[in-house]
């Protein structure tokens, strides 16, 4: 009997060891596999982003020598529209959105012609002064190359999707010099309230490698570490919360402004390149009325805001208008850099109104707008550490999460998929794209607070001309 028990126990132990070894062996192979693939992807994206940023720097530097370079806006938008319309329609817009759409709908398949067309259309748009950013093109170029790499070696749809997500992360990391925030952005931007943890390791590897490769190519980055921020107090903390609410509202204004620009363009029922001409003319008029400050990337204004430079209070609204016209009227480029501009100038205006330090709230505004407009509060919080240092990060994180909640079920990326409801008092279908989200009031309990929620909901619905 004792021998039987001993044999049984030994056999059970051996089976468990074999299963454990088999599982661990598979995991080791998986880690090695994705280390290699993510490294290759990061290197490809780093090289392409580095080349793109160098070309962009040369192009904008050349056109910037001439005071009236923006008079070429109609021609630039016309060329951009022709390139996109006839060579690669998926290169339209601000880049990252199309990659998100490809991940959700086509298992990450991206046509290779998107890469050169997106690069050329973005360089042309920024050369003439279009108000766009540079992260979207880098993400789309990187994702397109990653998709082509996956197709070349006949990877499965699941593996292709992972590589394309790595391309998003690597593109963001190599453009802004923020490898950790970029890595998180790539897996957080796909779903609102959900993250693809299975892509966490390759995303980190791709983001870090891409950043290192771009850095070795001579790409320089802007960091502005805050060594001093106001001491913690209930008063200051309350103002940070209030700022987060304000930045969430600004995020809504920006999202709706971009939608309005698209609607305006769609009402022009004629050849799309001619829309570009009209849009370019509109920006020329606005530039003469206001200034060249709202054209292009606006990096000088962003850096100025972070050093405490004062702007007119409506600067963030003007940047939204310029960006909406550019993207709606056939311009091509990213959206995160304009979000930085809007956030920094909105933060400066908020601080001036309450008598606070404008530089501190410009930094908080930058990351809070990213969280609210792109629905990426974790990436935005990490972004604050990498760009501004740990001193300001706790306040920036609070404002970012608050902005994320206040912006509601909206996004600058309409193809994001809802994986959560931002309030238990709102009911919205999960698993649908954000563009199809239709929140309805549905309190989980009967209380005075729920009654107040309901009255506010009804009032706002009627004010907006629809039934609640």
Describe the secondary-structure layout.
Blueprint lengths: L1 H62 L9 H15 L8 H10 L8 H14 L7 H18 L4 H20 L2 H10 L2 E2 L7 H17 L17 H33 L5 H18 L9 H8 L8 H14 L7 H19 L3 H17 L2 H12 L4 H14 L10 E2 L7 E2 L12 E2 L6 H16 L5
What do these coordinates show?
The protein has 468 residues and is mainly alpha-helical. It has 3 domains: 196 residues, Clc chloride channel, CATH 1.10.3080.10; 173 residues, Clc chloride channel; 47 residues, no CATH class. Helix content is 68%, strand content 2%. The protein contains 17 helices and 4 strands. Strands 1-2 form a two-stranded parallel sheet. The longest helix has 62 residues. The radius of gyration is 24 Å and the shape is globular. The model has no long low-confidence stretch (mean pLDDT 85).
List its traits.
468 residues; mainly alpha; Clc chloride channel; 3 domains; two-stranded antiparallel sheet; 17 helices; 4 strands; 68% helix
Summarize the structure.
By secondary structure, the chain is mainly α. The chain has helices at residues 2-63, 73-87, 96-105, 114-127, 135-152, 157-176, 179-188, 200-216, 234-266, 272-289, 299-306, 315-328, 336-354, 358-374, 377-388, 393-406, 448-463; strands at residues 191-192, 417-418, 426-427, 440-441.
């Amino acid at each position: 009997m004792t021998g039987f028990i001993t044999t049984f126990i030994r056999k059970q132990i051996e089976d468990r060891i074999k299963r454990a070894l088999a599982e661990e062996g598979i995991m080791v192979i998986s880690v090695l596999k994705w280390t290699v693939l993510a490294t290759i992807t990061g290197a490809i994206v780093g090289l392409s982003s580095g080349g793109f940023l160098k070309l962009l720097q040369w192009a904008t530097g050349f056109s910037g020598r001439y005071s009236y370079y923006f008079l070429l806006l109609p021609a630039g938008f016309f060329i951009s529209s022709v390139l996109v319309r006839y060579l690669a329609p998926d290169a339209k817009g601000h880049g990252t959105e199309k990659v998100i759409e490809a991940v959700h709908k086509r298992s990450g398949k991206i046509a290779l012609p998107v890469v050169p067309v997106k690069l050329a259309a973005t360089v042309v748009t920024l050369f003439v002064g279009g108000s766009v950013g540079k992260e979207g093109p880098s993400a789309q170029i990187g994702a397109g190359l990653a998709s082509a790499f996956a197709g070349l070696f006949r990877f499965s749809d699941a593996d292709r999707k992972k590589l394309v997500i790595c391309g998003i992360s690597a593109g963001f990391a190599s453009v802004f010099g923020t490898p950790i925030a970029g890595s998180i952005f790539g897996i957080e931007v796909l779903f609102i309230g959900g993250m693809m943890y299975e892509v966490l390791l390759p995303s980190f590897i791709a983001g870090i490698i891409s950043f290192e490769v771009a850095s070795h190519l001579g790409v320089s980055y802007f960091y502005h570490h805050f060594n001093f921020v106001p001491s913690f107090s209930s008063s200051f903390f309350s103002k940070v919360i209030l700022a987060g609410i304000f930045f969430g509202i600004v995020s809504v204004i920006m999202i709706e402004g971009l939608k309005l620009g698209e609607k305006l363009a769609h009402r022009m029922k004629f050849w799309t390149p001619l829309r570009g001409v009209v849009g370019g003319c509109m920006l020329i008029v606005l530039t003469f009325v206001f200034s060249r400050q709202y054209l292009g990337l606006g990096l000088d204004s962003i850096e100025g805001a972070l050093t405490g430079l004062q702007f007119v209070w409506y600067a963030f609204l003007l940047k939204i208008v310029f960006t909406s016209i550019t993207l709606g009227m056939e311009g091509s480029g990213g959206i995160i850099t304009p979000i930085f501009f809007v956030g920094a100038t909105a933060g400066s205006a908020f601080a001036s109104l309450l008598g606070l330090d404008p530089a501190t709230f410009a930094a908080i505004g930058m990351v809070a707008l990213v969280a609210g407009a792109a629905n990426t509060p974790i990436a935005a919080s990490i972004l604050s550490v990498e760009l501004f240092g740990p001193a300001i990060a706790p306040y920036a994180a609070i404002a970012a999460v608050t902005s994320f909640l206040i912006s509601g079920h909206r996004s600058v990326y309409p193809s994001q998929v809802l994986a959560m409801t931002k309030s238990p008092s709102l009911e919205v279908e999960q698993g649908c794209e954000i563009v199809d989200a239709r929140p309805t009031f549905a309190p989980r309990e009967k209380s005075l607070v729920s009654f107040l929620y309901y009255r506010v909901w009804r009032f706002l619905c009627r004010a907006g001309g629809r039934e609640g």
